[in-house]
């Protein structure tokens, strides 16, 4: 299946790589070793990558000049001889614009550093119908360009739905089909634009700044419900870039009609908005029963992929009103009953502890990965 390379994993070498390919590959390897907060000397980078001293020196020199890396002091003494200079990711010079399209009535954006940490913020309130166009996104980006104190290396847009090479193939939340976001925005600003599914953006943050490991099933419950799967540090994208669209898998063929055209989709039972509406006027006992039922539905939906892919870590992101102990315990209960065996490690369901910037930060990381792979 197609996949995107993650930081933290060296890119594969090509047998017939051009000098530019080799240089790009070496940049990725070195950046991956340092991201997000590691510090190594040139000598240590050489030992870990197998690159020659000349190759490391050449690549590091370019990355220092470019603003990707910085020198941060002297390495600890390892006996006689001159101590090496430590290198780390430079968070002071280069900037990224990151846009979150997942909120119903608000466009949220930030200027971030190379760790995806928001430095400046801007937003645009949408009309009651929640319509979003490339022009509205351009207006938000223009606001943020004036806020940046460094060179912008890329624009990232995180969108709900199926995303394929800058085009949102389908988004039931936005009512989009085959909407090219990357081209008009890139043409307007002359800056590379990366468009990413929102669950993949979120899983990037959980992977590098949360508790996620290289193998994980990530679920995001908000207006809709989506997921992302990591296997050996690689997100599973799918043949049609629709892997993770768990919200539009039917759990009841005679259930309520979904905007996608099917009936009984998981999203019609488990989206944060639907659960909050159901609990609004319920008693405490009724609210807990609603959450237990919802948790069992999620466990039902996740048992098959967890068992099929032998995943032991399931991380759920959502508002505490919904993703709480009652909900997670019900999900855990179903998974234990469905997947526990002598040859499958116990699958643990846990709450994502990353904050409200999970989409913005993750999309900035997606921009960095794209930048390293193409420059």
From TrEMBL:
InterPro entries: ATPase_NBD, ROK, ROK_cs, WH-like_DNA-bd_sf, WH_DNA-bd_sf
UniProt xrefs under Gene3D superfamilies: 3.30.420.40, Winged helix-like DNA-binding domain superfamily/Winged helix DNA-binding domain
Region (Disordered): 1-20
Annotated protein name in UniProt: NagC family transcriptional regulator
Top-level lineage group: Bacteria
Membership in a protein family: Belongs to the ROK (NagC/XylR) family.
One protein family per Pfam: ROK
